[in-house]
Amino acid sequence: MKVSAYQIPFVATLVASLLLSVFVVSLAQESESTDSATKDEDTIKEVIQEQVNQRIDQILNKPVGVFGKVTGITDANLTIVDTKDETSDFTVVTSSLTKYENSKGGTIERKEIALEDTVLVKGVQTNMSDRLEAEEVQVINNYSLTVNETMVGSVEDTGTNEITIDGDNGQEVVDLTRSHGVFLAGKIDEELDLSNLNKGDEVLLLGYRDDKDDFIGKVVLVTKQVVVEESGADTEAVEQ
Amino acid sequence: MNREFIIAISLGFTVGLVVMYGVWTANRSMKEFETVSPVPTNPVQIDTQAASSTTDDIKPSIDLVVTEPYKHLLTSKELITVSGVADPSDSLIILTELGQFVLMPNEDGEYSQEIELEKGINTISVFAVSQHNDVQQEDRIVTLSS
What ipTM goes with this model? Predict the structure, then answer.
């Protein structure tokens, strides 16, 4: 095959141009992807930073109200033990701006606060620590915190607003005046009437004990129902 | 250098430029297409039936979590939200000073309930009762300040 004298410079220039184009394109791509990646990275960083800042703001300097018993008093601080969680001690930092009140809201002096007093400290919990910067310390002795609990037993009898339960502590009458209702466990959209309960039904009661240690029921969950047959002679337990 | 030689070099350079422009344009178009409609390079086929049967076999129960309110919250708002996560099959009971709420979490186990506070100290208890009647309880003490 005869090669023309002009073919050699033509092909050589063409190949050189192509190689140059490949080089230029790959350089451009690399630069573009680096720019884009940097931009994406910056955006993600900004979003994360904003979220982290918001979260930190929420965690640090939380406004809190801690109900506890005074176990220590110094010139600068009070130490209290959380009434709900007795393993939690708090150092209450007081200042000249801290207000002191009695249970009726009357102003008292700091020196009137004594060991064993029950107080409600309103202030700011800093840096998730056990340090409270107190804005107000209110002495509220003779206040009992509501302690919600459960009671399990079988139904002995039912009244208009009460239910007699045979539980771990023997028979106990539960006040249901404040009851929200009676529900089948696992089928809470089906509300029952107290009169639907039968002797032997197993229930889980949720409520609290009052000052007299009487159980005040708020919600009754029926966990096992007995089915009373027509004859009334036989009963069969049906688990819900 | 004669005239034909210069024409050959020019032609080679021009063709090279045209090819380069073509490659660059095609490359740019491909990139825009990927940005507008990203297509997974390795699409994964999810066998929902297999996944659900595996879940049914294991079915780990989720511990009750109360995400809000936080412990010892001090607020001036009479209405606050109690929310968190529980096992989707659990019955949830929220006891407050002023009332009680019976609800179910959604299919992801999330729950949320707006509650009213009374002035002063409020005990809020969240109970999760499982299908086997196991009970979990989480309490929060919230103070409503005037």
Answer: 0.70
